[in-house]
Amino acid sequence: MTARNLFLLPGDGIGPEAMGEVRKIIAYMNEAMNAGFVTDEGLVGGCAYDAHGAAISEADMQKALAADAVLFGAVGGPKWDSVPYEVRPEAGLLRLRKDLQLFANLRPAICYPALAAASSLKPELVEGLDILIIRELTGGVYFGEPKEIIDLGNGQKRGIDTQVYDTYEIERIAGVAFEMARTRQNRVCSMEKRNVMKSGVLWNQVVTETHKAKYSDVQLEHMLADAGGMQLVRQPKQFDVIVTDNLFGDMLSDVAAMLTGSLGMLPSASLGAPDGKTGKRKALYEPVHGSAPDIAGKGIANPIAMIASFAMCLRYSFNLVKEADDLEKAIANVLDKGIRTGDIMADGARQVGTVEMGDAILAEF
Amino acid sequence: MTARNLFLLPGDGIGPEAMGEVRKIIAYMNEAMNAGFVTDEGLVGGCAYDAHGAAISEADMQKALAADAVLFGAVGGPKWDSVPYEVRPEAGLLRLRKDLQLFANLRPAICYPALAAASSLKPELVEGLDILIIRELTGGVYFGEPKEIIDLGNGQKRGIDTQVYDTYEIERIAGVAFEMARTRQNRVCSMEKRNVMKSGVLWNQVVTETHKAKYSDVQLEHMLADAGGMQLVRQPKQFDVIVTDNLFGDMLSDVAAMLTGSLGMLPSASLGAPDGKTGKRKALYEPVHGSAPDIAGKGIANPIAMIASFAMCLRYSFNLVKEADDLEKAIANVLDKGIRTGDIMADGARQVGTVEMGDAILAEF
Ligand SMILES: CC(C)[C@H](C(=O)O)[C@@H](O)C(=O)O
Ligand SMILES: CC(C)[C@H](C(=O)O)[C@@H](O)C(=O)O
């Protein structure tokens, strides 16, 4: 069997602690299942800045490009709040997304039954919630040029960002959304602001045409992004797959994640296009939560989102579908048993730390 | 007493019905309080397109510019979904905002106690909620150039929108936020995406400097806009005044509005700068809800948001503070009595139509 190359970028804050629990699962899979994972590790974010003066070094970028999959923890923290814009911790993540061409960000917003009560929404609105948000990740206002601050003189400056989308970028992300929908409830809702943005007009057209040309079996709906935000709060279960641009995806997926009551538990996958020859796609897996500097290093962080991200890695990068299912089931079982980290603690549950949570999941796996 | 000139733009959908109830209040104030309102009326949105081929005619724009205040209903509907971009219904509203230079959009997100149960959030999270969102309304990606779709050939198009903010634009909207905060809980939270947008970096700097220079008595906090969306869902009562740009304001104010359970009830004010000589500011008042074409013409629309928008008009355009308070109290009293339109119906309440709701509020006024 050929080796399965994983590149680990634990990053800052609680990233390293969460990654530690994934490392245990990898070791177990190598030993018990002969999974053949080979891991290497690098620095990203604030810790990379401290070591190299950049949010990720060229050497680590090369390793990320060469790996079958990248596992990413989290970046940032108050320590680096005033480093120059170009080398801020987030720059490492943005460069990975751009250079690996990870245009498709999959963000499941699911509500673990054991956690429905933790949502700020009424439980009946979120019980059984299972939305997949597909966010375009390499275009839009995140990367468009010009992106600059100009000095106009007289104490006036001008901040400029540019939202740009080309037909092919919209087509390929729409394709991912329709393909995913076919494996689920077969419904896609596309969100933009076509009433004020020209990129939204084009987005709407291209999604509509892609649907007509290749995916007319899937149910397609269009919604303005502001109305979409409202509907997520009002009646989230109306959605199956949501497809939207980079910035709207950032906002909407965070709102959706918060709805579930499972924020500390949600994974994400960022995928590139399948290689023409090998069919392999570059990929990065990361928890939706951030670096949580306030609780970093205390051994209390919830490693579930990181572990669930590894489950997505098993599924999408290595086609280890059964293993992915098993790992996700292990997480659900541990929750059902009332084992909880502090962030998801509930009456009558048993509170554990990061390592104990990882052990419990491994025991169920 | 000089006349108080109001220009009414009922627009499409339920706009005209809702405006009808405000007209009754205006007539009453003229008669019983000698308020001296003089009203004129025009067309905006789809109905203006049908009449003139434009989303608002030049003649009506002149009237809007000359009036002391504009009362705006709602625009749009499926009938006009495929009219050309330049004359779509929303273009009328956007032109009014831009040409009247209504840079400050005030969107209160309050939870009427009688309606807390109607929120999708747990009642304890929204009871007593009172947030004021201050959205920049004449800049950002809504108006920046280039804004276009380019044909690249080979079946490829490129959609472009430009986010632009100058120092003075951020300064003046921050000023409004700090001034407003002083009349409330004295706290401002500024939201942007400085970690990915240069306009966000500038926004953050200018808000910070404005605070230091003139408003250091107000408590200031900065939050990333995606985290802000999360926090609105998680713990909305943590906020007093939120200040943010045009696009984030569009998204965040809709989410906030939905949280309250009072969406059909929320007003907004869009204000210009005070005139150097007269101190008067141009202003437009409009409900947060849209044109609701599905229920238009049936006499069942909730007129409260339109009436509450008129209360904001009394307060901000005419300094009729007591009258504004009384009108808002009349709305609350009617709700407390269990009188409801269909959209806010609850067990044991009495369901009424648009006209009856307007009459009930007038009777309490
Ligand atoms: C860290 C930041 C640059 C990033 C983004 O804005 O994309 C984050 O919010 C996310 O959603 O992954
Ligand atoms: C109608 C539309 C152009 C408008 C906007 O996007 O500003 C609306 O959503 C609003 O929030 O007032």
From TrEMBL, chains A, B:
Keywords: Amino-acid biosynthesis, Branched-chain amino acid biosynthesis, Cytoplasm, Leucine biosynthesis, Magnesium, Manganese, Metal-binding, NAD, Oxidoreductase
Binding site for substrate: 97, 107, 135, 226
InterPro entries to which the protein is assigned, alphabetical: IsoCit/isopropylmalate_DH_CS, IsoPropMal-DH-like_dom, Isopropylmalate_DH
Isopropylmalate dehydrogenase-like domain span: 5-361
Cofactor note: Binds 1 Mg(2+) or Mn(2+) ion per subunit.
Ligand binding (Mg(2+)): 226, 250, 254
Record-linked Pfam families: Iso_dh (PF00180)
Residues reported to bind NAD(+): 77-90, 290-302
Keyword Magnesium attributed: yes
Feature type site, description Important for catalysis: 142, 193
Cited PROSITE patterns: IDH_IMDH
Pathways per UniProt: Amino-acid biosynthesis; L-leucine biosynthesis; L-leucine from 3-methyl-2-oxobutanoate: step 3/4
Reaction catalysis annotation: (2R,3S)-3-isopropylmalate + NAD(+) = 4-methyl-2-oxopentanoate + CO2 + NADH
TM segment ranges: none
Primary location group: cytoplasm
SUPFAM superfamilies for the chain: Isocitrate/Isopropylmalate dehydrogenase-like (SSF53659)
Source organism superkingdom: Bacteria
Known function: Catalyzes the oxidation of 3-carboxy-2-hydroxy-4-methylpentanoate (3-isopropylmalate) to 3-carboxy-4-methyl-2-oxopentanoate. The product decarboxylates to 4-methyl-2 oxopentanoate.
Family according to the record: Belongs to the isocitrate and isopropylmalate dehydrogenases family. LeuB type 1 subfamily.
Protein name, per record: 3-isopropylmalate dehydrogenase
